[in-house]
Design goal:
Blueprint (H helix, E strand, L loop, with lengths): L2 H13 L6 E4 L6 H11 L3 E6 L5 H5 L1 E5 L2 E5 L9 E7 L6 H13 L1 E2 L2 E2 L3 E8 L13 H4 L3 E4 L4 H10 L4 H9 L17 H12 L5 H4 L1 H13 L6 H5 L11 H14 L3 H14 L2 H17 L3 H8 L3 H7 L3 H5 L1
Parallel strand pairs: 1-8, 1-9, 2-5, 5-8
Antiparallel strand pairs: 3-4, 6-7
Helix pairs in contact: 1-2, 6-7, 6-14, 7-12, 12-14, 13-14, 13-15
């Protein structure tokens, strides 16, 4: 499933109060942990993030302390005692077998030693797969059978929505739309390689005029900088937003991606979106208008501007007929 689909699935678990132990599988750097944190924050749930690979069994079980004529386990302070929240066991399959054995009791019985997980808490976990070349241990079948299993893959569309919402450089967004295979690609022999997480770091480096190769690797960085030289020929998009319809839509694919992503980034107000939409419908093939709508409509919806833009566009009979192809996007 995509990151968006994972988020929707987890929201349903929360909404329906299904306290099923959940295991999220996926490659490093595609947002597993951040999605879980977002779900917790948006539902006003407390969030406890435990990196099991960094803990010893006694860290989770607690320490034995004397009590009259017997000993009792003193639970660690980081485990939740009350309220509602998400107890997130991250990197669970990077933990050695002894640690996974202790966590199994927490996952199955919602308790370990003398500690019990409060009723209002969800227990979710995440881990990388062997094919991601992560240093993971096999998950014992008894432990695996305690979970529902969700697998997440990187999604360019979801990344673009996230990037636009968080003010990423339009050049990075356009480059990844053009070179989709570089959104997530583990590079042999390199410590730095491209992933949604490392492209977010690259955006910060780019904004600071620093080499992004330190985040995404030398090869992808070199391709990005070569791309910047090519897109210097992109039409003046500020003039397009200003209503200059004499400007034509470019023919070269890299320039087309740069043009569409650049227009999305410039649609700060409904009037900008309406002007850009009209220009694209007049100048560009339909698939490029659809790409524009796919990225723009979620942003407009987030800012409560989609209804106003839709009403304005559909007041034109020609535009109303054209927008029939985007009813799914408008309703999403």
């Amino acid at each position: 499933m995509t990151p968006k689909e994972l988020e929707q699935y987890l929201r349903q678990l929360v909404d329906k109060e299904l306290k099923l132990s959940t295991m999220i599988w996926g490659a490093p750097g595609i947002g597993k942990s951040s999605i879980v944190r977002t779900i917790a924050e948006s539902n006003d749930l407390d969030f406890v993030d435990l990196r099991l690979s960094q803990l010893a069994p006694t860290d989770l079980r607690g320490l034995p302390v004397p009590r009259e004529d017997e000993s009792a386990w003193l639970p660690p302070e980081f485990l939740p005692r009350k309220g509602k929240g998400v107890l997130f066991l991250d990197e669970i399959n990077m933990a050695p077998p002894a640690m996974q054995g202790v966590s199994q009791q927490l996952i199955l019985d919602r308790r370990v030693g003398s500690y019990e997980v409060p009723d209002g808490w969800f227990v979710w976990s995440a881990g990388n797969r062997k094919e991601d070349r992560a240093a993971v241990f096999d998950m014992p079948s008894p432990l695996a059978n305690r979970f529902i299993h969700l697998e997440i893959e990187a999604s360019l569309e979801d990344f673009r929505h996230y990037a636009f919402s968080n003010g990423f450089s339009e050049h990075i967004i356009a480059f990844l739309a053009f070179r989709q295979d570089l959104l997530h690609k583990v590079l042999d022999g390199e410590n730095a390689w491209p992933s949604p997480r490392s492209w977010e770091m690259a955006d910060k480096l780019f904004d600071a005029n620093l080499d992004i190769g330190a985040a995404v690797g030398l090869g992808p960085a070199a391709e990005f900088y070569s791309y910047l030289e090519i897109i210097a020929q992109t039409p003046d998009l500020d003039k397009v937003i200003g209503g200059n319809f004499k400007i034509g839509f470019p023919k070269e694919p890299s320039l087309r991606y740069a043009t569409v992503m650049g227009l999305v980034a410039r649609c700060k107000e409904p009037k900008h979106a309406i002007t850009a939409f009209n220009w694209l419908v007049d100048k560009a093939p339909a698939e490029w208008v659809q790409l524009f709508a796919t990225d723009l409509f979620p942003l407009l919806r987030k800012k409560d501007q989609l209804t106003a833009v839709h009403q304005e566009l559909t007041s034109d009979p020609k535009m109303r007929e054209f927008l029939m192809d985007f009813t799914g996007l408008l309703a999403a």
